[in-house]
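Quick start: what a row looks like.
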Amino acid sequence: MSRRASGPTEGAVELRGIVKRFPGVLANDDVDFSVARGEVHALLGENGAGKTTLMSILSGAYRPDAGTVSVGGAAMSFKSPKQAIEAGIGMVHQHFRLVQPLSVAENVLLGAPSSFRLAGNATEDRVAELAEAYGIRVNPSAKIWQLSVGEQQRVEILKALFREARVLILDEPTAVLTPQEATHLFSIMRKIASEGRAVIFISHKLDEVMAVADRVTVLRAGRRVATLAIGDSDKSELAKLMVGREVMFRVARGDHEPGAPHLTVDGLAATGDLGLPALRDVTLEVRAGEILGVAGVAGNGQRELTEVIAGLRPATSGTVAIGDRDLSASAPAERIAAGLGYVPEDRLGTGLIPSLGCIDNVMLKRTDEF
């Protein structure tokens, strides 16, 4: 992936003196931030550093308590995301804004300004053109519920491209992606930047920032602590700027022998959401004291495997045992009682109830105790 050539470039976005307060929290404290056309600019910081808040101001979701926002040299005062979209700002949120029963093309069109509305099958044709031009592998007629999380993210990017966004904000985009999908995403980002658009990449993953960004701005505790060209920095310096101290990147693994199997999967087979085979003769075991990784490009059965193990999807053959207990025919509650924990890939959609508080969500699987 080639980076932008150095030298003066027209500004795409400029934020000056941004302040944003929430009850008991100063999320952004006099932050300056600017992005040039044709660059990928990383916004780096720990969780809670104020990255998403700052970009929510740029995308019209929040209004700043102080400070100014300029887009393409023009002063802006967004009162809504709609106004930001009309000004050429597109944001791909960490938690996607998609309607599951609708198709890819219908979601791309949903909420778009009237000037972008097309008749008949023209929307699907335009989405297909954009997908091909940017190497975005997704079927415009597919329903959102049929897509993997990585594919749903591509739909969000297509929404921004369809609306001709000149500034694309990606909020922690690799959090739900495999390494291969992340690499593909970076190529899409570079393609978008090569056309003279600006790409803002919110992250706390140093390797990814070093791989794709031209410049990086570091936030810590709501304040901007540095803006650097990637070539003028390294992982150690960025990590120190993020947390305010030296960071050790390598942690020695202890020498130990794994114990008896805690989870055993034998000859597992299952179908996917479309009724097609998703798992064929999968056999594995996880022993006490070890971490087992399951790798693969999205859509190759990883989600179905975890759902079968958790009891959320029926197996067509094979067994699942926890310890010495065969729980193949057991409900999820029995598996939880046997010591199984499950964190789904779609944390917001199927892992949590956003309208409830932290304590209520934590207690959802223990309601029978009260």
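That is the whole record. The mean pLDDT is 88. The first strand starts at residue 11 and ends at 22.
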